[in-house]
């Protein structure tokens, strides 16, 4: 029974490895070719897509190797091969933390966009966003030093960091949602006025901003669904009562797969919410098909 769980998880990660590579590769290409996406927002989305692509390149293969070794040796690699265990987590969490902080940065950016209004373009410049993106990647690398301390303590610290980011992002997205709903009512009132032609540019800009902010909210909710179960397992494993239970070990492995699954789902949200990105991908596919014919 336990071996079947390992095999199923290995197959699932192999499939997700392919989807993470193809979907994020296509998203990166589409974002670069889509001029309708504002440059600051594009930089944040590209950073998020690159981190998700890294999960496909290294995260899934390392976890597949981890599962295969543990299944074959019938031993916990945390104690049997602690170096490989720490290296695999170090590399994988490098990209997952970059994704996590990327979502936090994206939430903050959309929060500023709807609250600063005209001052947003003055304060949130492309150069500043690029600096923030670089800082996110540096920070995600420095946090990996956590894995140098005893592993059960590192688990809890990781859980604290993730929960803190989830809470901050949750507060930002709640405020974003409330403001967007208020703006939606204002747009509706503008549309029914006889001066709708004069207000049309404002309505269009507000509608575009509304779509990008709702995209951010969907990305956050998806992160919450994918990451929260793993955080809960990390906390449970730290307690002496639950530590070492075989069922909790299996749950931990599958909740970690759920974390990695997030990298395959994010591109679907970009395509769903950003019409320009979706259209670029469709045009690329149609051109590829027509060229073969």
Description:
This protein starts with a helix and ends with a helix. The chain has 293 residues and is mainly alpha-helical. The protein is 88% helix and 0% strand. The radius of gyration is 21 Å and the shape is globular. The longest helix is centred in the last third of the chain and has 43 residues. Helix 2 packs parallel to helix 6 and helix 8 runs antiparallel to helix 9.
Which helices and strands occur, and which strands form pairs?
Layout: H1 2-33, H2 39-73, H3 77-80, H4 82-116, H5 120-123, H6 126-143, H7 151-191, H8 196-238, H9 246-273, H10 275-292
Helix pairs in contact: 1-2, 1-9, 1-10, 2-4, 2-6, 2-9, 4-6, 4-7, 4-8, 7-8, 8-9, 9-10
Q: Structural class, from secondary structure content?
A: mainly alpha
Outline: globular
Helix content bin: over 70%
Question: Could you tell me the number of beta strands?
Answer: 0
End-to-end Cα distance, whole Å, is 48 Å
Uncertain ranges: 195-204
Main beta sheet, described? Answer: none
Gyration radius over CA: 21 Å
Strand content: under 5%
* H and E string: HHHHHHHHHH
Mean pLDDT: 82
Count the DSSP helices.
Answer: 10
């Amino acid at each position: 029974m336990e071996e079947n769980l390992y095999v199923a998880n290995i197959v699932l990660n192999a499939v997700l490895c392919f989807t993470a590579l193809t979907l994020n590769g296509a998203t990166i290409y589409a974002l670069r070719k889509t001029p309708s996406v504002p440059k600051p927002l594009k930089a944040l989305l590209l950073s998020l897509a690159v981190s998700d692509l890294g999960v496909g390149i290294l995260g899934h293969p390392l976890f597949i190797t981890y599962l295969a070794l543990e299944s074959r040796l019938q031993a916990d690699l945390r104690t049997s091969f602690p170096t490989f265990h720490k290296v695999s987590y170090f590399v994988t969490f490098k990209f997952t933390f970059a994704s996590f902080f990327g979502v936090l940065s994206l939430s903050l950016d959309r929060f500023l966009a709807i609250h600063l209004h005209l001052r947003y373009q003055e304060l949130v410049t492309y150069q500043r966003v690029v600096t923030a993106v670089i800082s996110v990647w540096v920070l995600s690398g420095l946090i990996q030093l956590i894995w140098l301390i005893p592993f059960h303590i590192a688990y809890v610290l990781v859980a604290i960091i993730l929960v803190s980011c989830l809470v901050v992002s949750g507060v930002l997205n709640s405020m974003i949602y409330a403001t967007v709903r208020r703006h939606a009512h204002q747009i509706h009132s503008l549309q029914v006025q006889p001066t709708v032609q004069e207000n049309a540019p404002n309505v269009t800009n507000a509608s575009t901003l509304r779509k990008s902010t709702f995209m951010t909210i969907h990305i956050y909710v998806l992160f919450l669904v994918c990451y929260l179960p793993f955080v809960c397992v990390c906390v449970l494993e730290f307690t002496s009562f639950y530590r070492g239970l075989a069922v909790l070990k299996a749950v931990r492995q599958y909740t970690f797969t759920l974390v990695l699954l997030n990298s395959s789902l994010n591109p679907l949200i970009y395509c769903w919410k950003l019409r320009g990105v979706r259209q670029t991908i469709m045009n690329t596919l149609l051109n590829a098909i027509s060229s073969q014919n």
